[in-house]
């Protein structure tokens, strides 16, 4: 049997005392590749990586090389060929690392001491779902009733957190765990039943965060204002990707008329940054015969 031990520590300040939390995980697996893949827990591995990366960031150590090494290197037995399952696990892990490296969580850690202490505390005590949510925000489309003033109710559909989901006829909810941004498109603002719909939106918000402490901050962002940046900075810029990649991530784009698609692209062209597709194209896979000492 092969036993792999991961033991990472996270030091953080809680009120007036300093606490150190050490998390150790053991993976049991046989030498058979399929069983090794089945034994891997990507969520746990990513949680440990995120905690250690942000701990190093908080201690002001050089972290760019550390994360690059973790993201660009997969350690494996050179005598074992990579099958589809291994590649899929690698892809899943790299997607999470993309949001850790390129998302706004890191900038919050660097800018505000209060935010940094709070985030380190949540990372230390939070479960796998909480840590993943902090790194990769969730985006919900609050689907509006087709007929205005019909008294219909909203339906909630989770979307990938991407820029091209921001369409002017929608109300979207961006959930970053510590903040909730209710984004109201220009066309949605003009509906005669907008006040009733916003009340329903706040009911959805209360359901999402009733168990969180402290309660997340809630902001209402109107499309077309300078406040848009607070939503856009959390979203993956797939407007920089080829069309086929955009369609894979957000299939609804296939049905958009050319003029609507062009308008949607133009509103995001000013946003810089690499998309997941662009970042993955730079990732290299390194196969070694033994683990480094």
Structural summary, described in words:
By secondary structure, this protein is an alpha+beta fold. 43% of the residues lie in helices and 18% in strands. The strands form two sheets. A five-stranded mixed β-sheet has the order 4-3-5-6-7. A two-stranded antiparallel ribbon has the order 1-2. Residues 1-16, 62-82 and 288-293 have low confidence and may be disordered.
Write a brief structural summary.
The protein is of the alpha+beta class and 293 residues long. It has 13 helices and seven strands.
List keywords for this structure.
293 residues; alpha+beta; 5-stranded mixed sheet; two-stranded antiparallel ribbon; 13 helices; 18% strand; disordered N terminus; disordered C terminus
Provide the fold topology.
Layout: E1 2-14, E2 17-29, H1 33-39, H2 42-58, H3 64-72, H4 84-102, H5 105-111, H6 113-125, H7 128-135, E3 138-143, E4 155-159, E5 171-175, E6 179-184, H8 186-189, H9 194-209, E7 217-222, H10 229-232, H11 243-249, H12 258-266, H13 276-280
Parallel strand pairs: 6-7
Antiparallel strand pairs: 1-2, 3-4, 3-5, 5-6
Helix pairs in contact: 2-4, 2-6, 2-7, 5-6
